[in-house]
Each structure stands twice: as C-alpha cells, then as structure tokens.
Amino acid sequence: MNICDRCGSAHAKILLTKGTGQESLCIDCSNEMVSTELGVDLEEQPESIVLKDPKGITRYFKVEQKLFHMGIRLQAEEAIEYGYQFAIHGELDCDQKQLFQELADKVKDGLARQYIEQGIFPNDQAYQTIVDDELVGRIEYNENDPDVPLIIIDGKPYTWEEVGKMMTSYEGFQFHLKIF
C-alpha cells in the first residue's frame, strides 16, 4: 500500500510524475492540490449510499469525490471485493448536490435489475442463466489468471468459462458486444 507523501495517509491512490521525480498522493491531498490550482472547491457530500437490491440485500457504497482539471468525478463503490461500482462525471462548475443525486439515482437504477438468475433443477443441480437475453457488467483483473479477466455482473465475479456456460443455451444466435 502506498503512503501519501503529503499527509502520511496509507491510502495513496495517485502517482504524479514531475520531471524525474514522483509523488504519491491520497485522494484528499490530490483534491486539495487541484482545488488550489483551479480555485474550485468540492462541496461536502454524504460519504456513503445504502440501498437494497431486488432480493432485499442491503448494499453499502462508499462515495469518493475526485477533482480533476477537466471536471468532478463521484464514484460509489460497494464495500465488498468485486462489488458494484458506479461513477458519474460533472463539469467543474456543476451543481455538486445535483451531481451526487445523479450518482445516487444511477446506483438505484443499477441495483434495480438483475442480469443473472440462479436456480436449482429438480435433480438438485445448480444453474445460472441470463435474464432477458442481456448481460451488463464490468471487466476486472483476474489475480488467479492474469491472461483472462473476471467479468463482474450483479456485483459478483464470473470467469469467462462461467459466462460461456450461461451462453450455451444461445448457440446459433448472434450477439453484439459493446464496451463503454
């Protein structure tokens, strides 16, 4: 874990390269540096969002604000490994309270739909199937096999093999893969 060169925090996520030197910064110190450079202040926002998914499971999200030279990013990251992540971007002069509300709405909308249904056949064999012929998720690094990514869907990690197994019922169909 990197240590912030300015405040000593053990949560430095940003590495700045200046000439031949480098500086590790935590989000707070980075935001303070950019705020001073631009004369833009980040408004205080709630630090978390808590919502229930369609199965009634309570989901806890940590909200992080990041000030960039081109705008403001708010990110809600579920407090579990490979959980849900949502982000939204706004202009430097945006209404920051409205930006937070848009993030909260995006989290709510993202939790509202499940893309994989799990069940058990009458012979007690478990199965997973794609709901309404659509999958939405994100691609993550796979520590167990760096050559093949994990696919995070419904806040859970799936291997390419597991996604492929769910797609076998679509043999002969065409598909459209769009990365955004």
Automatic annotation (TrEMBL):
InterPro entries: DUF7685, DUF7686, DUF7713. Pfam families: DUF7685, DUF7686, DUF7713. Residues 43-112 form the DUF7686 domain. Residues 115-180 form the DUF7713 domain. It comes from the Bacteria. Residues 4-41 form the DUF7685 domain. This is Uncharacterized protein. The lineage of its organism: Bacteria, Bacillati, Bacillota, Bacilli, Bacillales.
